[in-house]
Amino acid sequence: MSEKGLLIVLSGPSGVGKGTVRQKMVESKLFEFQYSVSMTTRKPRPGEVDGEDYYFTTKDKFKEAIANGKMLEHAQYVDNFYGTPLTPVKKMLAEGHDVLLEIEVNGAMKVREKMPDGVFIFLTPPDLMELKDRITKRGTDAAAVIEKRMAQAKVEIMMMENYDYAVVNDKVENAVNRIKDIVSSEHVRVPRVIDNYRKMIKEN
Ligand SMILES: Nc1ncnc2c1ncn2[C@@H]1O[C@H](COP(=O)(O)OP(=O)(O)OP(=O)(O)O)[C@@H](O)[C@H]1O
Ligand SMILES: Nc1nc2c(ncn2[C@@H]2O[C@H](COP(=O)(O)O)[C@@H](O)[C@H]2O)c(=O)[nH]1
């Protein structure tokens, strides 16, 4: 085991099932990771808890956090701003925890520039009809917002080529198992494992 945790970035179009898959990853007990809670200017959906699902904030406070260098990345998505607070991610990784970011593609590419050692996974729907069906049946967004999210989904899907892995979310359990295989393989990649031996050799 490396002392420094693995950064796992999970992206994919709105409604593909990122949150559902993450929840199942936790329940499965196949993983040990900490979740990076994002900041957003979006209004909370029913049932969403401040500090757990997101840090809900105003546009002014969001801009202030950017100006003060407090964000690892940030992006505008449809009509709102979203971003990853830097300090908790740095701390969790330094403590050796794997950290999961669930973020859209533009933010993910900014993270890739800063933290190229992370593993970048793109969750795909079985097809676009199914994506629209999922986002509609979720019942959280007005028809106009769904249209905007679907338009953005097409742009995002074409950005999949910048990711390390594509995982199809046909059945949630299948997607979780695929992600488990990816994360396990990343843990035994030579650049991660060799660091432990470097340390051991230096100390002896
Ligand atoms: N494999 C699946 N099969 C069928 N329905 C699914 C599957 N995965 C997720 N869903 C459903 O699709 C809807 C959207 O899922 P979820 O909210 O997890 O998506 P998301 O990618 O996190 O969306 P957003 O980015 O907008 O937050 C939910 O109603 C969820 O129950
Ligand atoms: N670049 C970032 N994107 C983020 C972050 N947190 C969430 N997201 C993504 O935004 C869209 C919309 O989310 P929703 O909760 O309004 O449906 C979705 O793709 C999220 O993954 C973030 O910190 N940075």
TrEMBL record:
Enumerate the UniProt keywords alphabetically: ATP-binding, Cytoplasm, Kinase, Nucleotide-binding, Transferase
Q: Which Pfam families match?
A: Guanylate_kin
Q: Which SMART domains match?
A: GuKc (SM00072)
Database matches in InterPro entries: GK/Ca_channel_bsu, Guanylate_kin-like_dom, Guanylate_kinase, Guanylate_kinase_CS, P-loop_NTPase
From the Swiss-Prot or TrEMBL record, what is one GO molecular function term?
A: GMP kinase activity
Using the record's annotation, list all stretches that form the Guanylate kinase-like domain: 5-184
Tell me which residues bind ATP. Answer: G12, P13, S14, G15, V16, G17, K18, G19
> What is the reaction catalyzed?
GMP + ATP = GDP + ADP
**Free-text function comment from the UniProt entry:** Essential for recycling GMP and indirectly, cGMP.
Domain of life of the organism in this record?
A: Bacteria
Q: Where in the cell is it found?
A: Cytoplasm
Which source organism?
Amylolactobacillus amylotrophicus DSM 20534
* PANTHER family linked to this entry: GUANYLATE KINASE, GUANYLATE KINASE-RELATED
Q: What is this protein called?
A: Guanylate kinase
Q: Give an example GO cellular component term for this record.
A: cytosol
Q: What's the EC number here?
A: 2.7.4.8
The record's section on Gene3D superfamilies has:
Guanylate Kinase phosphate binding domain (3.30.63.10), P-loop containing nucleotide triphosphate hydrolases (3.40.50.300)
Top-level EC class, please? transferase
Family classification: Belongs to the guanylate kinase family.
> Where is the major localization of this protein?
cytoplasm
